[in-house]
TrEMBL record, chains A, B, C, D, E, F:
Protein name (record): Agmatinase
Gene3D superfamilies xref list: Ureohydrolase domain
Signal peptide feature range: none
Family note: Belongs to the arginase family. Agmatinase subfamily.
Keywords tagged on the record: Hydrolase, Manganese, Metal-binding
Protein's organism: Klenkia taihuensis
GO terms classed as biological process: putrescine biosynthetic process from arginine, via agmatine
Cofactor entry: Mn(2+)
Length: 337, 337, 337, 337, 337, 337
């Protein structure tokens, strides 16, 4: 466990699940999911604060931190039907990105080797490079596709004189061969970045990026369905990277580079649900939650729910329950006394 | 009038309507609606602050507090076409829920006996027990149905060692016979509470609960129409209970237990309008507005408008105007000089 | 340039574009667009603070202030494909509206005479009178139509004993003959103002006002299309006035008179895009951004993007690119290496 | 009472005292003190918001609004031992300072003519001109001295092209002859305004201004004692003008032009006590409280207490109690059963 | 450990000290100090929120939560030189003060019986009754004196119809015989409460209350020295109760009933140091920290430091170090290599 | 000028002074003072945000940004009597402290070589190493003493696995020989860091550290006078490093590691004045202002005034005015007409 992590919030686990140590495989035996904190904001180009993201995401919930969360919609308990452990925060010094990222990558790989899905709580989006990279290191370069929710493509080349930062992880993942550009699905892009030459590079990689205009015109469900078919072609697993700024700033003000005109919280939660119900998710990160800019913890609460939605849906996918029917009333078919 | 109420905000009436005294029937003569404040947050399980809700709801409006509000959409003035009075705050000590709730219940019953619709401004949702209970005490147990907007079912049994609290009022209403479980319509539920055994209890009562997944899939209007038909079957009146957390935290951050993924403010206002236009509403409460967690008063402003929308629609329902046509342009058929 | 403007924020230009001086036509030679700041909140009826709006709108962006913003959706760079200059703030003393408004009107007219589109950053909405009036002074009274996004009609007669204020500019524009009432399109009205007698006056002017109920029922796109056909009938140009309170307070909390139930940020941005793509816009103002009531700068960021969306779309309209196709994938038809 | 005042907060009186009407002398019969609200911020040079000051000062108190406040220190009840009434807010349109200030001046004069001390709740400091001017209009020009707590001298000549604003009232008072420059005592000045030529003008008027350096070096009590002797020389009464920014921003953040390095709240309260105990105060204003910039209402609470301290001390001065002894224990000489 | 406590913040211990269980004496073996959380705000008369106080006080510190805090000034490590344990939060339902307070009293007594000093983190001040009462239950009624820092005397009789609340604990302690009125020392009182009849009652009990006027006039050190001599006369131990509102709101905004004109943070810390260095402290509580009203955690940080200052001084008092010399330079007499 | 700096706030100069380029000596010709921005927070151990410090310090002032600030107290205009230029922000990527700090050091040295005093606006305190180091590189290692205002000694060895960070700059300065340990004066230390072994190291260096206890007991003026005599012994110049957290959090909440019990704003300003009046200051930095945690800009305003106080006093020291007399009335000896 990190020595410094608790400095960026209290030393707790995600909603009270058991602790583990990613350097001790025995402690992860039988785990379905292992949570890792990445309290790092050295890669952000604008507002910092995401170093406090992991603990905020872990604890922002009005219910008891008791390691149980039965989903009304999915009828699974993501924290009990799965074995979910929390390995604490990886030590990442925000002033030294070149040391911090590899430390996280090794931790992610530890988790994957233990047979668990890593769920990494950021931290700024520079961590997607070690997150998805660490998964690919174990499952095979080129064998993992990416579904990436974000207002920004994060495919910049060099920023602030560095190859590493929250605007570049997706480029580094593709350039390094860890992920295939043509199995890279981006949802929610908008605004005024990156510039045309970067878009040209993205096109050359055969990335598929859904800007909000297309999503608005064709419909989010249609775009997702199309993306799902690409994601599962010739790939064994899917990495889900959720930058909370994919949501509109009204729904997620506590973030570093807010871009107006995004998804609603409901749309994001429903999308995460579909992905984890329908696709073989092998890794997740939830990034760019910056508590100093949050109000009444609404952004942290949303990120907490993104994680829970994912866990609940993975549990459902792995359960013996019938296929999920979104039109079923809440109380249909309950056990009656 | 309460002695301590003004301690939780200035001693004013809702948008400047006239005062009355619920213990003095003469003062309520001819009233269509009587506003009551319930400055109580002793029943909340997480963030308090709703004791400041009643005064915030009464005063958060950028227009003069002049006792008039002509609705653009409905072409009625809810504060003038109806006789609306404000009986001030009921004295409710947050440290003593067992004394506070009966005091409110008696006040609500006073209002109903005077022939007026009580509109109770909360306060946390534990007040729904005395609110709807007080109405049923006068109109008859089992004769009033409930339409309940909320992220949470509020059907818990014992919490914090107590039968009384903001997670349990709906169970107590049904158990006590005041309301029928099979005339209990819940809109907007989501998230991770209550647990399955409580859902089983709810199913056994034949409650009808619309979780956000069903609402998203079938459409809010369809769900409402279905709910309306249940609500009016074998019941004489409808109690409308609006927990502001039915809205997404982006629209209503100032609340105690925010659950991401809710309705928009527009959806809530439109739903309240339809209910008050189409159904025989006999009581209303608007709860869980917590000013300390609000920003720029947007949650209090929304609650203020929920009340006004209800009043405007009740006025329209009681007016001689033709049926409401939502496609009519604003300026159609105006009096021209 | 104003002597006092920098007192209401730092002395910068909109996202780093070049400066000009509206009193010096040579400095505006070749300009397509000239930004003007109107740091004035003397006309507001409730919360002040919009005097800090112009600088907040100019600088709220997480990208470098480098005078370039390539739009992902529109494939134009509104700051480079157009020649955009910033003339700084007009000196407007909030305590003296009768001096302040004419000063702004003269500045706007200077810009129009120079052949540029004025984009005025407010300030409260009282500035719409000099903004649209100044345009009409040059292009001809009765020759410019108005598309007005707002929660409020702003057609009051006398408020606070004055003819001038943020609730009255639209009445003054029509009464003065600068704009035609029957070419006045209002989008997003809702709530409880103005009163019926003012609506009668509006009807008598043959204004066309789309209240949110009609928009919700008929669809925003339908209403916009209808409005566009009116706006271009017998008029040479369109003035676009965007009161940020047309958006729901959840999306735009930092404003003076927030009215729940409005548009989403996405809807506003898409609407502004359509207007500037499809209509001959001759002037724009973006008003009622009040930074003291904002949170994490989300309202200022939205206003900044409203301006950029308009500029990007104007650039597209003036470009040789094919007609805009909203279903086109982001990376379709890029230059490949 | 003002028609628009309640728009800037609820329509209440200072801590629940009785209402009066300054245009109706009978309503003020027997009054010792009459509170007036001046909800005006049209004269501020930087952050506005003081229009919400009067209601914030009236209501920010955690005790019941019951018209009673027994001072622990002074053993008087300023609201009961004196007859204190509240005449509500004067209608002052922030966009028209030239109309607004005379309206306030007339109201202040009404109060003085009724034999009461006016306590004016601002509002920005431009109201000091009508406040002290209105007192002098009745008691005689040149017969009232001024004790002025402020970070700023407020002796500017023309600002923003106007003679009227919050930086100039003291100059206008002296120039107009209402107050004598050599009976003008300023406490707490600091910082970087006004410029030398204005200081020269002040010196020429023989004003006595205590900058914080002198106060720190010689001691606040010494400075006050010296000032008191000047204030009472050849004058019949003293006007006390308290700009809340005389306090350090740590104690009073909610203000328009905060200057670091000021008095503590304790020092201000003790100074106000001494003035009202020892001098014949004939008028008071408390200005520059800007609620939008306040946190947890601490600035409004301080202003509320400045008023109460003044009233308690005036009551003590008028009482039959022995001279105030600050070393007396709280419980000394109490009535024992 | 409480079942519900973690709902009011993460389940952590004070700065990372070891946990214990107050119902299990063995777990407290050898403890010098046991921390208890009292997440209760049902007794507050105004702003709630102190239920979140215990966890905020436990975790608000920028240093690692590592169970060590070497005091620069006192040269002791309060968390290591003493054996400090944390028994977690007592379950206290804010809606039921009559059940909650006895539960806390029993827990406090458990700690005292185990030979440790209880340090209770509030919570509102109603907990002082069980805190000091629980200590007296074990050490003997009338054998413990009280030093009470507060803006308010907290000696009310019945408020909101109840004997129990944050304005009455001191009266109940004296009336019940747990503490002697003539060994009750109050520091920092000010403002306008309680009323004269309550002061008469206090005088009759021979309480000694230092109002801020006396403190300002005679000096804080003088008053403290005098109080110390009373506190140790015929008593075996001293209970220290610190209401954070004894500080000025500028230093402690996050509290329920802020009264301007209080101590500085420095004065409070120095006073707590002297008390714990010079007197036989047998119990401590730190109350009225309300995180929803705090800014940048400054109030919680102050309360965290009040606890640390007390622990450091107790450690010093129990150490073999020479008498504390406040004029000694920090680096005097250090171990040199 | 930096390419990325304007991303962390608008591209402005300190209060409107002229720009220069530190890489172009000609642009600095004749400069007395050159301001440099260090928008870096990669070295902070807790709350980030100081990257926005430089622009906040430059622009937080309610007066026009006109390059003039006549000091009331000192009777000099620090921006006019001196030639003050602003070289903009040095490009410092927060994710790469090992590249960022040398870049700043080179810039500081450029300024010193040009004969000007560098005033560096931080940024976190890790910049003190390049700030004072850059000065010593030019003026001579061991020839510059340090007066260091801070709650923390900043003499840590390795933190987060790095030699570089905001807790270690003072150790690195001494270890590297740039500054002498026995000419290192620290004012305002308090709290619980560093641990004893670090204090031993400090003692071994013969540093002189004034903890708040000593300051409170002996008096700040006495301590300063003593420190001044050390600082000028065998040194040619003094570097003044002001960590804003030397002030109490009530006066400076917007900082990364707030420690209760500090100086008042007034005490800091007076101390800075004395230093710059009495000592040969050759470099200044003002650090640890973190705008995301500030309220109403009070911390930024204080830092702005720290800079102005220093400049005003340097101007006074260099002027022909008589020795500064703090007891002189403000208006004494003014030019009369």
């Amino acid at each position: 466990m990190a020595r410094y992590g608790p400095q960026f919030g209290p030393d707790i686990t995600y909603l009270g699940v058991d602790r583990c140590d990613h350097t001790d495989p025995a402690s992860m035996a039988g785990a379905d999911v292992v949570v890792l904190g990445a309290p790092f904001d050295g890669g952000t180009s604008h507002r910092p604060g995401t170093r406090f993201g992991p603990q905020a995401i872990r604890m922002t919930d009005y219910l008891p931190h008791d390691g149980s969360r039965p989903s009304l919609a999915l009828r699974t308990d993501g924290l009990r039907d799965l074995r979910v452990l929390d390995a604490g925060d990886v030590e990442m010094y925000s002033g030294d990105i070149e040391t911090a990222l590899p430390a996280l990558r090794a931790a992610v790989a530890d988790v994957v080797r233990a047979g668990a899905i890593p769920v990494v709580l950021g931290g700024d989006h520079s961590i997607a490079f070690p997150d998805a990279g660490g998964v690919a290191d174990v499952l095979g370069h080129g064998r993992v596709s990416m579904i990436h929710f974000d207002a920004h493509a994060d495919t910049g080349d060099i920023e602030f004189g560095s190859l590493w930062g929250h605007g570049q992880p997706m480029r580094r993942l593709i350039e390094s061969g860890a992920l295939r550009g043509d199995r890279f699905l981006q949802i929610g892009l908008r605004g005024y970045w990156p510039p045309p030459e970067t878009l040209d590079w993205m096109a050359a990689q055969r990335m598929r990026s859904y800007e909000m205009t297309e999503i608005g015109h064709r419909g989010l469900q249609t775009c997702l369905t199309e993306a799902f078919s690409i994601a599962t072609d010739e790939c064994d697993g899917v990495f889900l990277s959720v930058d909370i700024d994919v949501c509109d700033p009204g729904h997620a003000p506590g973030t570093g580079t807010p871009e107006p005109g995004g998804l609603t919280a409901r749309e994001l939660l429903d999308s995460v649900r579909r992905i984890c119900l329908e696709l073989p998710v092998v890794g997740i990160d939830v990034v760019e939650v910056s508590p100093p800019y949050d109000h009444a913890d609404i952004t942290a609460a949303l990120a907490n729910r993104v994680v829970l939605e994912a866990l609940s849906a993975i549990a459902r996918r792995r359960s013996a329950l019938p296929p999920f029917d979104p039109s079923l009333p809440l109380l249909a078919d309950r056990n009656l006394p």
